[in-house]
Amino acid sequence: MKPERIRIIAVLAIFNYIFLGSEYLFDNMICYATDSAGVVRAQNYVLGISVIGFLLFPCINRYFNQKMREIGLYLLPIAGIICIFVIQEHLSYRSMLLSGFLLYILYGMIGSAVHYYAVVSLSTEKGLAQTVGFGYAFGLLLQFISNNLIHNSTVESVVLSIFLAAMVLLVRRLSLECSRGVVGAEDSGTDSDTDIRKNNRRSLRHPMLAALLLISIVVLMTCIFSSLDNAVTLVHAGGSVDIGQWPRLLLAVSGLLAGVLFDIKEHRFMQIMMYCVTLLSTMCVVIIVWGGPFMAGLIVFYLSAGFFVVYFTTSFMDLSYYMKVPELWAGLGRATNNICVGITGTISLMLIETGDGMRISIIALILFAVISMLVYLYMVQFRMNIQEKNMAKMSEKEREKFLEDKFQAFVKNYALTNREQDVLRLLLSSDESVQVIAEQLYISRAALYRYMASLNEKTETKSRIGLLQFYYSWNQP
């Protein structure tokens, strides 16, 4: 692995550790002030409010200057550490809940930054799902080790605080590296923030429609998984089972497995794999509410939950490459999941407490049916167009002729001059900087920029990447 990927895995692992570790500490401390149902409700509240932080970061990143962002970055761990120790003291229900609100808003901001900088750093790399899976698994292993070695809430708070400070330093380093990358991209005539990975051969037909479909899929899946989560948390809060011990290893294993499987053929089978996992989880909900074995449900929950986390994290990070505001979409998977947990978690808890197995089963099956339809519609957005299907069946000579015919048709359709044709050919075949391409064409950089601006104007695109994306998705009349 490259050093950049290792740093991203490390920062994702630390983020997952402090996010889940703080949740575990919060649950254990608020038990002193409320009953098991109250613990579940409070947990859902703090997770739901974290979405504010995920939405705040894009605004800060776009409208605050570098100096103000630096100051905020150093203030975040101080405020977070104070909140952690207020929760650890468990003086009152109100103080713990308010500290939990502030802490998870801060975590939302940091998490949004982590996912965005990871997206920018991996813009030309493969293995996005594996990176997410490794980061998630290592974060859970950290929590597993912490839960087994640390049995004092004060020590646990100190460890969480140290990792929080370390994560902020890593985020700062990623921020500086990404800033240098953006400067380099501007110098070469590309738009780094909105660049689609160069190795991504799929085209997305309607990015905003795909985004709405993905949000809907994650929302409905969260309803099913949060129902399982609430059932498990109720047992944990009641003292029957400590879910902070060995079951966490199942989460780590499923996260690793999901990362490896989802990256097959550049995520082409990710949707159908997650569909099968959701089917299994739906069946598990039905079995549990009808009095099935709890341990079987616990194992299914942890195995499927790891797949789900890697799924929504990877899906939104991948989607952000196609969106105009990538820093908003990169971390929106976690935000969508958290807000749904906050909203639907209380409702599912009420249903579970009623013990009405028939009603819960019907709702779960209806949700799964709707998910099935939405997954199909989302997969259609990434299907190869007719030209790509035809090219897959061609020989090498036929493919070359087809590409040349398409190029000539494009030239004729947009009335490109001879020099603009030369520029476009090099842009299509080369990933070199503007300076290198200008030297190959024996023209100045300024002249090359003028030709590129003319191409953008004729095709109604705004950047070099936009032009290339438009060309590859253009269908010959």
From TrEMBL:
GO terms under biological process: regulation of DNA-templated transcription
Domain HTH luxR-type span(s) in chain numbering: 413-471
Keyword Metal-binding: no
Keyword entries, A-Z: Membrane, Transmembrane, Transmembrane helix
Entry's transmembrane regions: 7-25, 45-64, 71-91, 97-120, 127-145, 151-171, 207-228, 248-265, 272-293, 299-323, 335-352, 358-379
Protein origin, superkingdom: Bacteria
Gene Ontology terms for molecular function: DNA binding
Keyword Zinc annotated: no
SMART domains noted in UniProt: HTH_LUXR
Protein name as it appears in the record: HTH domain-containing protein
Taxonomic path: Bacteria, Bacillati, Bacillota, Clostridia, Lachnospirales
